Amino acid sequence: MVICFLLGFAIGFFVFCNFISSFMQGFLHSFLVNNSFLASSGGPPSYPVLGCLISFYKNRRRLLDWYTDLLSESPRQTIVVRRLGARRTVVTANPANVEHILRTNFNNFPKGKPFTEILGDLLGCGIFNVDGELWSTQRKLASHEFSTKSLREFVMKTLQEEVDDRLVPLLESAMETDEVLDLQDVFRRFAFDSVCKVSLGYDPCCLDLSKPAPPLVKAFDTASEISAMRGMAPMFVVWKLKRALNVGSEKKLKEAIELVHGCVVEIIRNKKKALEETKAKSGAFAGVVGGEDLLSRLLSAGHEEEVVRDMVISFIMAGRDTTSSAMTWMFWLLSKHQNAEQMMVREVESMLNNGRNGFDFETLKEMNCVKACICESMRLYPPVAWDSKHALNDDVLPDGTFVGKGDRVTYFPYGMGRMEALWGKDWFEFKPDRWFREPGGENGLLKPISPFMFPVFQAGPRVCLGKEMAFIQMKYVVASIVKQFEIRAVNGDQPVFVPLLTGHMAGGLNVTVKRRELK
Ligand code: HEM
Ligand SMILES: *[C@@H]1O[C@H](CO)[C@@H](O)[C@H](O)[C@H]1NC(C)=O
């Protein structure tokens, strides 16, 4: 009887919460832009509460652009946002503020529990999702591994395999059959293969369309999608309750996470065995043994199974959808700006004609036009559109904005790439030229741009660990494609940028593939 009652109550409460949650979504998500404060620091004109609700409804499908508009109207590119039921949030596109948060006063701005909770079940204590000591020890270890020459060589080797033996043949066959391809899907498969090979020494063969996607890939997709949904939920209590009761999306999440952890642990155990066997064979004086992937390196260094598991899952999470997002938007932009594409083609051609033997590391490093195009697309469509920290203590940002203990502080690469104050009147144009020291300086040097003005990889002590690897990967792919193919978007309209954990193109990018004849 009592149990029935309790159960009934729990279910009733659950239904009620879900109901309230969908009903209140609009209201709770309404942003009450607080102006009593902004009046003193300079900001958007006052919005009466009702006016703000209305503009929220008008803008709910374009929140990124709405924020961007508010920020560009604010003289200091900073706004304070109040949302019923959520903590006070400072959103900034001001480079001085960004430098303060990400570098000068780094210790006061950890990710914080409200963020780490969301991905905590999937990422555990992995580098991507922890703060303080736990983070800094992993960071030291990982930055050492990421900066070794041998890892870079391994990355080049996996790229050659993945691009030359899989991506290029796939595009060739689409060309021969006049098939329309979803390039976003192709790049996501490519990125998953690449990051798994580098992090785990395991090949999920996602780009091989004749094989079904392995369970790890599907489970990873499900787990990151549902985790991202937690972050969007208007009330934490809803997903926490669902998790406690193990129902609905939270049940699916739990299963997906178990599968991810299971697969990775299995890979780790096999790797350990292989490492031990090699060690036994090669004797005690063999020095470093085993594979060149990150997992082998971490295991050879003697780290615990669970620590290693969480670390490599963090690498996969961080490295999978980011490069694919950047390249998808880039090929859409290039489709519309063929002069920029021509500039890259000339660069690649001249390198190949000057006796370069394919794209080795040195050649990639010199590809300034390709780099300028990649940066220019990421300025307009940054893979990570926004990112938040939570203040440990009261603080004042360089522009005078007060930050209270516990407040959320969001730096906003998407908005920053679209500030007239930062990029000039032509900010909305796709102009790779702006990345060169001299205009029209195609063969010249790139301009140094402050990472706090262009924080697409974040900046400061916690800057993306995979930044160099990401550039190598993107340059290799882009150069290999433009060298032999003309990719043209079939999508007519402006695609929609969906900022989940990483920015997607809604509905994918349909393209046709034609042969390009090099001179
Ligand atoms: C265009 C591609 C990429 C972009 C735009 C990008 C961007 C970022 C950003 C914004 C962060 C900070 C996120 C946060 O703290 O919440 C980050 C962190 C990180 N990224 Fe990347 N990333 C890219 C590619 C990669 C790749 C290929 C890897 C390789 C595995 C990688 C590994 C990491 C790691 C390990 C971190 C965590 C660093 C730390 O917390 O100390 N990233 N990245
Ligand atoms: C791409 O093509 C597929 C099928 O050809 C179609 O279902 C889809 O809607 C298209 N996507 C976009 C964004 O146009």
Structure, briefly:
With 519 residues, the chain is an alpha+beta fold. Helix content is 58%, strand content 8%.
Shape: globular
Q: What is the name of the CATH superfamily of the largest domain?
A: Cytochrome P450
Count of the separate structural domains: 2
Please summarize the sheet with the most strands. Answer: 5 strands, mixed
Number of helices: 20
Give the N-terminus to C-terminus distance in angstroms: 83 Å
**CATH domain fold name of the largest domain:** Cytochrome p450
Computed CA radius of gyration, to the nearest angstrom:
24 Å
Count the E strands. 12
The stretches of 5 or more residues where confidence is low (pLDDT under 50) are: 1-51, 285-289
Q: Which CATH first-tier class of the largest domain would you pick?
A: Mainly Alpha
What's the mean pLDDT score?
A: 86
Bound small-molecule species: protoporphyrin IX containing FE, 2-acetamido-2-deoxy-beta-D-glucopyranose
CATH architecture of the largest domain: Orthogonal Bundle
Strand order, main sheet: write it out.
1-2-3-8-5
How much helicity do the residues have?
A: 55-70%
Beta fraction: 5-15%
Class inferred from helices and paired strands: alpha+beta
Keywords: Heme, Iron, Metal-binding, Monooxygenase, Oxidoreductase
Protein name: Cytochrome P450
InterPro entries: Cyt_P450, Cyt_P450_E_grp-I, Cyt_P450_sf
Family: Belongs to the cytochrome P450 family.
